[in-house]
Design brief:
This protein has 105 residues and is an all-beta fold. Helix content is 0%, strand content 41%. Strands 1, 3, 6, 7 and 8 form a five-stranded mixed beta sheet that branches. The chain has a three-stranded antiparallel beta sheet with strand order 2-5-4, with no helix packed on it.
Length: 105
């Protein structure tokens, strides 16, 4: 499951694809992402990543030498991340618990 504020990483193996450059475009429900990064691992593989910032359906299109690759585009949903400040624990079972106690970690 992909949540907002998390990095989304794709590993692309292009060792048998010949010489070209990898590009990828991410479109969220509101707009295209401009912060997408492609890293050439210099072994025929690439790492593509971005930070999910929009909730909803996303589409990732990979291009090799400017042409769409097989199984592209990929679609997936991003869910809203729950902030830790909204998590509450209550009840008698917590009566003897320890908070921020290094001895219990």
């Amino acid at each position: 499951k992909i949540k907002t504020a998390n990095e989304v990483v794709f590993e692309v193996d292009a060792r048998t694809a010949g010489k070209a450059s990898l590009q990828f475009n991410i479109t969220g429900p509101k707009s295209k992402y401009k912060e997408a990064v492609v890293k050439d691992n210099e072994d025929g593989t690439f790492t593509a990543s971005f930070i999910a910032a929009q909730v909803g359906s996303h589409k990732v299109e990979f291009l090799w030498g400017g042409k769409p690759i097989t199984q592209s585009p990929i679609t997936f949903d991003v869910k809203k991340a729950i902030g830790i400040s909204s998590i509450r624990a209550e009840g008698n079972g917590l009566k003897y618990g320890f908070v921020n106690n290094k001895e219990n970690q």
